[in-house]
Amino acid sequence: MTRLIADVAVLGGGLIGSWTAYFLARRGKRVVLIEKGVVGAQSSGTNFGNLRLQGRFPGQYPLSLRAQDLWERLEDLIGDSCEFDATGHLYCAFDEAERDKIDHYAEVSESYGIRIEHLDRAQLKRRFPWLGRKVIAATYSARDATANPRLVTPAVARVAKSLGVTVVEHCAVREVRKSGDTFHVDTDTDLQVECGHVVNAAGAWALEFAERFGETAPLFPAGPPQFVTEPFPYFITPSVQTVDGSVIARQIPRGNVILAGYPRTAADPILNRAPVPPVKTLAAMECLAEVVPALRSCHVIRVWSGIEGYLPDMLPVIGQSETTPGLIHAFGFCGHGFQIGPGVGLCLSEIIVDGHTETPLSPFAIGRFQQEIEVSDKFKREFDAVRKTP
Amino acid sequence: MPRMGAASMDERPGLFVRAVDRDGGSIEFTIDGSPMTARAGDSLLAAILTNASLLRRLEFGGEPRAGFCLMGACQDCWVWLDDGRHVRACTTAAVAGLGVRTTPPALAEIRNV
Amino acid sequence: MSNVVVVGGGPAGIRAACMLAAHRLRPVLLDEARNVGGQGYRAPSPGLRLDMDALMGGEAAKYHALQAAFASIRDQIEYRPGTLVWAIEGKTLHVATDEGSSTVSFDALILATGAMDRIMPLPGWTLPGVFALGGAQVSLKDQGCFIGRRVAFCGSSPLLNLAALQYRKLGADVVAVCDTTPLGAKVRAAPQLAAAPRTMMRGISYLTSLMRAGTPMLHGVTLLRIEGKSRVEAIIVRDCRGRERRFACDAVALGYGLKPEAQLAELAGAEMRFDATSRLWLPKIDADGRAGRSLYLAGDSVVIGGADAAEASGELAARAVLSDLGIVHARSVARGLRRRVFRLRRFQRALARAFVWPANRVKDLSDDVALCRCENVSVGEIRRAMDQALGPIEVNRVKAITRCGMGRCQGRVCGPALQELVASHAGIPIEAAGRLRVQAPVKPIPLSVARTLAE
Ligand SMILES: Cc1cc2nc3c(=O)[nH]c(=O)nc-3n(C[C@H](O)[C@H](O)[C@H](O)COP(=O)(O)OP(=O)(O)OC[C@H]3O[C@@H](n4cnc5c(N)ncnc54)[C@H](O)[C@@H]3O)c2cc1C
Ligand SMILES: Cc1cc2nc3c(=O)[nH]c(=O)nc-3n(C[C@H](O)[C@H](O)[C@H](O)COP(=O)(O)OP(=O)(O)OC[C@H]3O[C@@H](n4cnc5c(N)ncnc54)[C@H](O)[C@@H]3O)c2cc1C
Ligand code: FES
């Protein structure tokens, strides 16, 4: 039996867990980061890589902007840019109703100081001549960015390790108990951790660690299908997204076009499966060819998805447990946790070290599910089947 | 058996050498704009490599490539056509009038107007 | 009537289709290739004045028999050449043709997708003029072209001498045949190979014909590097006595036997198992080729067995389908076939000892050698990624971090060498290094295939 005494045990070595461990270590805390597989191989390593500011939930902007600021300093923070690229983001509308929607999103973004350009068809034709005619208007935000998700989490965890974090891979947390002020974390290896704080950052697998302490959330696992093309001459500089979710695409300077498209597909966290039905591959390809006709002869070479935790209001759970002091939850990122990841890690480190954070997190409290919550419009539209909602 | 001297080898532009003849007539096509001749029935790969020593330039670093498996598996023989299509040379038939490009043609649709 | 679909128009697929057609099942035969016959017995492209009898010698009769068998069932099957099966989901195949994408559903599926060359990289192997050994044969049979004028045949494979001899017969200058397996290993494998005396004698006759023709035949060589500025100019090897030798040439045919094209089998749900003899992951089948419910595998796509085994296993798999559908119950015939397939495949395993995959070579590769042709990932990049803290020691993670195996071919070419590199560099058994997972599309499909579907 290996017994470790630490200040904090972080459950889950995804982006959230790794950034949390990183910031805690920088504040001098003794941290054990426990990952059942290898760091950054789940959602955090399979995601699309968008660091999108446009069209977010209004109450998330303070957190989101704080995170973007960290992303922009990624190289200073971890010594590796992980292909971070301030690509900008083009939010596209196919009709007037959608134009109203993006204009409304833009208003919210602008109220948080984000600069948005409103582009009509003529302007689009000049700036982005490769856009298909179906796109009648778009909003462009220059500060939105992208990064390579496959590289980021391992890089953060590596630096965390060099700062003194004990990173344990291939070790699944089985049981978390609390006696007095001390948490006891048991694993499926001979490792046991005793600590004063536990961060539940176990992604789509996190619910059991909340329920153990008498609280819950209607979390369910799913994954948006992702596709990538062969390398093609580089011309799509911004990240492109249609409001209806049929096309989410970006091209990396190497030339590959990365593509995602709703609806999302149910995933299986137990068997570790996130299938991509071939019909979705075809549907996404067809939609992309309409939005960027020059890609007609480009070939799709690979597809994948990931296992992400979703909640019916399409907002994550971030913050202290409402039953158990010292326990902090951060899971259910509903498909947008990559962007806010570093911000979440920083806020959690402040909660643990300082007792509070300046960044408003109340919309993400786990307790909200005790009341009737409003089911998000996105939640209704962007998944395969009609979901059972609480 | 015929033996070719080493001297003539290096000047020969094509990689492939025809071992047997074909019934079909000759067809004209272009590689990067230069006129070339092949034989009806040739695969696009054979048509190109009997004339040239490369099919394409690798996207990453630009080194010359000429295919590898010759059976549609390795995907190292993709060439561009003047019309913007991208095809796998070893499994595509050569057709008279094709314009082959070893690097991507400038796509009109993606240029600023 | 049951809907039986066969994928692959090589010896295995054709024999399966024949058996099904004989029972009036009107099978669907899907083949990506435009000409029937698969890799071994591919018919020459139209108009080629190739004398297949002269080229194939003793094997010509089998080639003609297979082509004749296909011709005789041509109107009793639904034959769809130029049709790539790119995905399988449940009992539906997704296919792509020049016309677009569509689906084909099945009650029973026989996959006979064949094999491709297995490659161990060496410095210079991405130069124009270096081709896979099987490819060198395909270019001759399918296109009537040599891969070069002065060709070196390198690696270790039963096809090495055969291909060299075919090139020689048609007038190419074979500058050397460099087999990396020592002669001693071949002699040691001889007793097992004697189980198929005709095949063994054929192999020996290839060797002696080449030697009589004065072709340098080297055994136990180490392939050091291929030289050339923008195309192949020479190959440098170390012979079994430790001498460095340089062969000027303009082409190199390189191969270390074959590896199954098992992607579709995996997508269809076949269980993949590590096979210690070949050091490859192979789909698991029963004695008849069953790999799961309604899923049957035949030919080289399951385990490398050669053309004879492909024909027999195709017929056997079709018999299993017929029996599972309750159409025939002739057990004695199946038993004979089963024994034949077993014997032929066992023989091929003995061949793997006479033509050795040079697993250890990967350790000696210098850092600058490209391992992944598609993404241009070098051996050194992989070693460095593995060496860093929290570095990957499993091939799919190595792929995620380095892009090795992430390109157009989806790791078909670099996969076996990548497994060896990861295992040797991490100091773990090769089966622990894992295998690259398969996803649809198994080959690149253009965006335009989806468009056509909608119109
Ligand atoms: C396909 C896809 C595309 C996406 N695209 C974007 C995007 O473009 N932009 C964006 O902002 N977001 C995107 N997201 C969402 C984003 O990836 C996630 O919100 C984010 O990565 C969540 O990070 P995490 O650390 O909570 O989860 P994870 O990365 O899933 O990490 C949780 C970790 O916990 C581990 N774990 C679970 N149980 C245990 C246990 N018992 N013991 C030990 N360890 C355990 C898991 O193995 C896992 O590594 C996308 C998600 C997916 C799936
Ligand atoms: C390049 C090469 C050359 C060879 N040359 C010889 C030779 O000269 N002599 C010899 O004895 N043996 C040769 N072999 C060995 C050969 O594999 C066997 O002898 C025999 O051809 C195996 O038969 P098969 O039916 O299992 O597969 P194959 O003959 O390989 O047939 C498989 C067929 O499946 C098709 N296919 C594969 N994937 C798909 C897909 N996704 N969708 C649709 N169709 C698909 C292929 O196009 C192919 O036509 C060669 C092998 C290779 C790889
Ligand atoms: S040469 Fe390998 S796919 Fe064409």
UniProtKB/TrEMBL annotation, chain A:
Keywords: Oxidoreductase. InterPro entries: FAD-dep_OxRdtase (IPR006076), FAD/NAD-bd_sf (IPR036188). GO terms for molecular function: oxidoreductase activity. Pfam families: DAO. The keyword Oxidoreductase applies. It comes from the Bacteria. One of its GO terms (cellular component) is cytoplasm. Residues 7-350 form the FAD dependent oxidoreductase domain. PANTHER family: FAD-DEPENDENT OXIDOREDUCTASE DOMAIN-CONTAINING PROTEIN 1, SARCOSINE DEHYDROGENASE-RELATED. This is FAD-binding oxidoreductase. It comes from Microvirga brassicacearum.
Automatic annotation (TrEMBL), chain C:
Transmembrane segments: none annotated. GO terms for molecular function: oxidoreductase activity. PANTHER family: ANAEROBIC GLYCEROL-3-PHOSPHATE DEHYDROGENASE SUBUNIT B. Keywords: Oxidoreductase. Residues 372-423 form the BFD-like [2Fe-2S]-binding domain. This is FAD/NAD(P)-binding oxidoreductase. Pfam families: Fer2_BFD, Pyr_redox_2. Residues 3-313 form the FAD/NAD(P)-binding domain. It comes from the Bacteria.
